[in-house]
Amino acid sequence: MKNQLIFIAQRLINMTLKVIGAGFGRTGTLSLKAALEQLGYGPCHHMKEVMLHNDQAEWFSKASKGIEVNWHEVFKNYSSAVDWPAAAYYQELADIFPEAKIVLAIRDPDAWYKSVNNTIFRVIPNFPKWIRFIFPRSDKVFNMIEKTIWQGEFSGQFEDKKLAIQIYKDRVEAIKKTFPAERLLIHSSKDGWEPLCEFLDVGIPETPYPWLNDSSKIKRAIIVMRILQWLPLTILVLFIIALMVN
Fold first, then answer.
1. Cα 71 to Cα 60: distance, rounded to the nearest angstrom
2. How confident is the model at residue 14 (pLDDT cuts 50, 70, 90)?
3. What is the pLDDT of residues 175-198, one digit of tens each?
């Protein structure tokens, strides 16, 4: 335990990106984030960071428009990065951080497509436009997601299941061909701790490998979004009724 704390302290002092997650979202990236942080490679960048921090939303918004950003500045407070939007720039990040190791999170292609299609792909069309109007930062984030993921990764054709799965498979093969075996780990959440710890040359924790799944939370959020879409109209109708009654 003492050695692990010393290791984590050294990571924090010498903060730079040491692990780059190249896998698409919904491939176990949330579990991988938790695992990396437990192993001392935290904080780990994830889409949630973009949602929470103004500077992250601003940087990735610029990157999605093709504007050059300082990746050292973007990741100055992180030891690792997984999930979109960082994964969309895996090659660029690998070049800028040549000492960083690459972890490619994978999942059964059909299960991956189903998960994306039932969760994050449904967020933007169901997110109330009036909220995006009132809160410009949310609009900036969703525009970034549209450009980076749905247009950038899938050329606006994610709804074509066959094509989307082929793009997923092509990404996996491209990464396999790009990086040497000593720099790349292909990892599924089902693989657990052992291959990840061996790859990073750290001890295996006594606790089980994290198994995090936010699908149910996202689905509940989508239901709430659909209800909120009608809120302004509902208020307007109630206001008109109140005027008529009076």
1. 10
2. low
3. 999 999 999 999 999 999 999 999
| Domains of the chain, each with CATH number or no CATH | 2-245 (3.40.50.300)
**Strand, helix or coil at 111?**
helix
Judge whether 31 and 211 are in contact, CB under 8 Å.
yes
CA-CA-CA-CA dihedral for 185, 71, 167, 84, to nearest 10: 80
Residues in the chain: 246
The 10s digit of each residue's pLDDT in 124-160 is 766 666 666 676 777 888 889 999 999 999 999 999 9
What are the CA-CA distances from residue 83 to residues 9, 119, 243 (Å)?
A: 25, 15, 50
| Rounded distance between C-alpha atoms, residue 81 and residue 101, angstroms | 11
DSSP 44: E
Q: Which residues 6+ apart lie within 8 Å of 166 measured at CB?
A: none
- DSSP class per residue in 196-231: HHHHHT-PPPSSPPP----HHHHHHHHHHHHHHHTH
Q: Which two tokens stand for residue 104?
A: 């490619």
Side-chain-side CA neighbours of 3 within 13 Å: the count stands at: 4
Asked if residues 32 and 21 have their Cβ atoms less than 8 Å apart, the reply is yes
Task: Please report, for residues 80, 197, 215, 230, the alpha-carbon distance to residue 237 in angstroms, rounded to integers and kept in the order given.
Answer: 50, 59, 34, 11
Q: Are 197 and 39 in contact (CB under 8 A)?
A: yes
